[in-house]
Amino acid sequence: MGLLILMALNCFCVMFLNKKDQTVAVVNCFGVWSAFSLMYWGGSGVSRESLSELFCVDIYSSSMISLSLWICGISILVSSCMTNLRGVFNSYLILVTLLCFLLVQCFMVNTLAMFYVLFESTLIPLASIIGIWGGQIERVPSIQYMAAYTVGGSFPLLLIFTTMEVHAGSSFMWFISMKTTSLNWLFWGGCFLGFLIKLPAFPFHAWLPKAHVQAPVGGSVILAGILLKLGGYGITRMMMLFSYTLESFGILVMSFSIVGSVYGAFMCLRQSDIKKLIAYSSVSHMAFSIMGLFSCTEVGMVGAYIMLVSHGFISPGLFVLSGINSEMVHSRKIKVMSDGVRAAPSLGFFWLVMIMANLGVPPCPVIISEVLSVVCVIALYPWVFVLLLMYFILSGAYSFSLYCQLTRTKKKIKMKVFFNEVTLKDMSALYFLFYPLAEVLFKWDLWAMM
Amino acid sequence: MATFLRRTCRLHQQMSGARRYIQRHSLRFVSTSDKKESNLSIPFTPEDIADETKRKELHKRLEEHFKDEDLNSPKNRIPYGYEENVPEVDKFNYHTVWWFWFVIPVIVGIAIFNFSLNDYGLRSWSEREARLVMEEREKKGLPYVEKNYIDPSKIELPSEEDIEAWDVKIKI
Known about the structure:
A: mainly alpha; B: 6 helices
């Protein structure tokens, strides 16, 4: 609650500043809020500082809250190229701050009804951001896809939450405990479909590449950095209600995820549009977190959350880089972007670092997550190792191919590129997205249940 | 027939080339950047850097152009990216962003992770406590863990009629 009050007070103070100073002031406020939210990470179980009538925060919530605040601040920092596009930039600040406010509450709230309302309400600011500041006319169908998938998938969840509330007499999620003996697959599907679409899980991923391609840089950063993680957090809370006993439904979802990881990596290999490539890479990475979550084991939960948090930093970093690079050459084609890398060689270094982090090269925490998730899956069915081996080969292949295309393509197009288009502000944003991974690496066992 | 096939192949090659040309040039969007091309005195292309002789020529042109330049003059300033027109505001914003996004989170983060999250989940405590209990039980000659750790008389098991309706799965 203190965090929300601090956010409201800071926003009120920022309103009285000069229009030009408001951007940097809001960015700095997000940094302060992120530092403040680290207080909620104290101790095992529920955080004492967060307890109130409406809110209750444990390690899963607090990590997502800190990630939300960090990523929303970064999205404003990197969105300077949107100042001259349609709409007023200050309305972008308001939309992002509102979205962050809703996200923080969504991760803090302790009732199922409020969680559902906040889960759905995060769609509105994002759709507005894509609709107002998106690049092309295709942004309208992309918003339609995103809204249809999200709302359609989560409508059964509303019915289930209503039933649970009537049955239990309360929607306080920490008290509800459902027996799983007489539940059918329709019920399981209704419970988890909305979150699986949000993550996104194969085969419900079709909306993500469209949304990412049409979204502006800041919108892609928020979508990849935190909005996808809403699905993982929702799955964690639903599994808490069922005491982590999913049995055969969990095995079905894990099977789809394994196929989805290979599918995502294969689709990355054949992409020429950088944003679509990063979107499909998100699909294959989120498959690992789904495997970890639905394994219903402590090791799986740790692996899933390490992936969720690490991916929340790395994927926005890739989108920031693609935004910088594509802004230089006015194209999202990878081979064309190589001209930008040739003109500003520092971009080549940043691309290498981010691609390696995305691939899971140690000491990036992604490798820990992949190992833990693989351990969970192989413990159930050892022959799955064949598919996972395919995934690792394909992910290495597309990462290597991406780096080579960006840095080693023979010049085909004559293009004028100005090296002063890569500002220190953008480099700072990349650094701010990379250094928190050290924190994830050193405290990777925080998400183990007691 | 052969002539027809030859002409079709040639046409297909031309179409593919045209398609590749269109694909390459169709994915451009309007730059939303505020930067004007006229700001830079000597525009260059990436081939000027990639080719060694052209790179040397460019280097000579740049040295010739900038030989009398004062490096500290305002027009040669490299902005941080926050404010193009006022250098003091630009520098101030750069420093404030680094203060609020690096210095404060690192200090607060290290403080919290070392003091508040120290021994997260009481793991170190539990290991110490286990060793102390083990030493104590060794001195008394007791086993580390008793067979009946929980008193069997306090355990309530379900009856056979209750278990009949349940699907019991035993995983080994």
